[in-house]
Design brief:
This is Secretory protein. By secondary structure, the protein is an alpha+beta fold. It has nine helices and 17 strands.
Length: 403
């Protein structure tokens, strides 16, 4: 977890919620400052309290429990049992309120989430954290969006500033990465004296809305202004509407772009999220078309049956070739060579698809996308559409591979 020396640049505040609610076309969230809600707690003598895990002093209630109940093998009591090898799991997740009630008001300004043992699609992506003194009227204390957890059964600690004592605290999990199940090994609350409170980890969120699409740009790096943020944003709002129109109008309209300094690849697509490597984008700040390949994977959601990954990746690179807007010299389709095969994936497959469209069927990929969404086997599709097997078409391509 990374901390900045300065704490004045944290994001995320009530203003984000407000700005989103009124539908601003562009919301940049910076530096919330102190909570504007005066609350009803007291703060006398608060500097004398120690920093302390006070979870065991609270009574836990959850808005939805495991089907086997709170004491089941994956029931809610496992969330606070101090054992990171057990976990709490909710099925058919929509949202969840995880509430802690204390006998007397506490000054909580930190919490710790521990990831589950397995599938990271069950990790929380967005959440809010509240305080209350009556369990009815809640004050927002912290908001997180587009969070990243690369390790299993690992503690992730979060800090915010709070000068009000509350008897109730609520962790409200709003959105998961991908799954319909939520899981967490532990969730713990920390009492924090004001002198030790901080805002961490620092991150920045910009939300942009246009033409019915919303892009939530989350920057987890320590650098506030990223040269490629505007490039990626422009690429998204230029190319994605075309892909929706051309291929799949039902694809997701609200997408996260996450800049992640802990990811050492280039980019990947997961649920509603696209993750970009911070290091890669720092080295290639003009390469907005990385996003074109990845957002095609959102369009491809809903394919039925077993579609091979080489075909999915080849189609995504085909789309980057056809719809990309920056076309850097570093990215081009490779020349044909006899050592290639159509299932080599990515650009090799992409070039084959381009060749088919130039010489055989000009709407081939659009038709292929529709067929895969209906569950048609890709080999059958080749025969139905071109009258020959994919192997025969590949042979013809090899005999005359010029585009
Ligand atoms: Zn891909």
């Amino acid at each position: 977890m990374k901390h900045l020396k300065t704490t004045k640049k944290i994001l995320l505040s009530l203003s984000l919620i407000l700005l989103l609610a009124i539908g601003c076309s562009k919301d940049t969230v910076r530096n919330p400052g102190p909570d504007p809600d005066p609350g009803s707690g007291t703060d006398s003598g608060s500097n004398n309290i120690p920093e302390l895990d006070i979870t065991s002093k609270a009574t836990l209630t959850v808005s939805k429990d495991n089907p086997d109940g709170p004491n089941g093998v994956e029931g809610s009591t496992k969330l606070v049992d101090g054992d990171t090898t057990t976990k709490f799991l909710i099925k058919d997740f929509t949202t969840a309120n995880i509430d802690f009630k204390f006998d007397s008001a506490k000054l909580v300004a930190s919490y710790q989430f521990t990831t589950g043992n397995d599938f990271d699609g069950r990790d929380p992506l967005d959440w809010k954290f509240y305080g209350s003194n009556d369990g009815k009227s809640w004050t927002l204390l912290d908001t997180r969006m587009g969070m990243q957890f690369r390790h299993r059964r690992t503690n992730y600690r979060f800090y915010f500033k709070n000068d009000k004592y509350y008897t109730y605290y609520r962790w409200q999990v709003v959105k998961l990465y991908q799954a319909d199940m939520f899981q967490a090994s532990e969730f713990r609350l920390f009492q924090m004296p004001p002198g030790k409170q901080k805002l961490a980890p620092i991150y920045w969120v910009d939300s942009t809305e246009k033409d019915g699409l919303k892009l939530i740009f989350v920057n987890h790096s320590e650098k506030e202004n990223l040269a490629y943020q505007s490039v990626l944003t422009h690429t998204f709002f230029t190319v994605y509407p075309e892909l929706l129109k051309e291929y799949n109008p039902e694809a997701v309209k609200r997408v996260y772009f996450i800049i992640d300094p802990t990811y050492d690849g280039v980019a990947y697509s997961f649920g509603d999220v696209l993750v970009f490597s911070y290091d890669y984008m720092e080295g290639h700040p003009k390469e907005g078309d990385v996003a074109v390949h990845e957002i095609m994977h959102k369009v491809q959601n809903g394919y039925k049956g077993s579609v091979p990954s080489w075909l999915i990746e080849g189609m995504a690179d085909y789309v980057r070739y056809r719809y990309g807007i920056d076309n850097p010299d570093s990215w081009a389709l490779p020349d044909y060579s006899s050592s290639q095969n159509y299932d080599d994936s990515y650009r090799v497959t992409a070039r084959f698809l381009v060749w088919i469209e130039n010489h055989k069927e000009k709407n081939f990929v659009k038709l292929l996308d529709t067929a895969l969404r209906k569950g048609t086997d890709y080999k059958d599709f080749w025969i139905q559409t071109l009258g020959k097997s994919i192997d025969d078409i590949w042979t013809a391509y090899g005999e005359s591979p010029a585009l």
